[in-house]
Amino acid sequence: MAIASLLVQSKKKREDLIESGYNRWANDDQGLPDWFESDEARHYQKQIPISKEMVAEYRAQLRAINARPIKKVAEAKARKKQKAMRQLAKAKKRAEGITDTEDMSEREKMQHIKQIYKKAGVLGKKKPEVKYVVAKRGLAGKKAVRPAGVKGRYRQVDPRMKKDNRTMKMKAKAGSKQRGGKKKSR
């Protein structure tokens, strides 16, 4: 990137960069051993005419670009947020309509409002995070003791479980696709 900026900045810098390509370090000897060629390629080079500060500056720019969220991801998050806001506004409107009615008791009103907000996803319960602990080979089938350093809910799994679950899903998916018709003979 730093070299590319030198090419674009001015004609003189571009010509200087091209000129610096022809030097005493640029040679193409043939018939040399591989170890010698690799050693020469590593150590026998001319210094590039860019400063460390310039390289650091461009690296910082690239880090800033990479740290930014991808446009599509940002748009998807914004759409999700907008949808949640619309649902919340709709739920508020319906809740206000329920509070204005007089033919229900206060308790019924509260239950209805709670139900509306639950449907809107405001009162949705968050699933407790489950930590997965992979069992050692000898202990896979036995009752496990809580491993050291694991707090909260955990689930002990054996190393095969992931592969077994994947094959079961694939079989179920393949089974649902079979409609009929001719079977291929092998």
From TrEMBL:
GO MF entries: methyltransferase activity
Keyword Acyltransferase: no
Feature: compositional bias, Basic residues: 78-93, 168-186
GO terms under cellular component: nucleus
Ribosomal RNA methyltransferase SPB1-like C-terminal domain sequence ranges: 1-173
Region of interest (Disordered), ranges: 76-110, 142-186
Annotated keywords: Methyltransferase, Transferase
Comp. bias regions, Basic and acidic residues: 155-167
Record has Transferase as a keyword: yes
Classification via InterPro entries: rRNA_MeTfrase_SPB1-like_C (IPR012920)
Highest taxon listed in the record's lineage: Eukaryota
Signal peptide coordinates: none
Biological processes, Gene Ontology terms: methylation; rRNA processing
Protein name: Pre-rRNA 2'-O-ribose RNA methyltransferase FTSJ3
Organism annotation: Geodia barretti (Barrett's horny sponge)
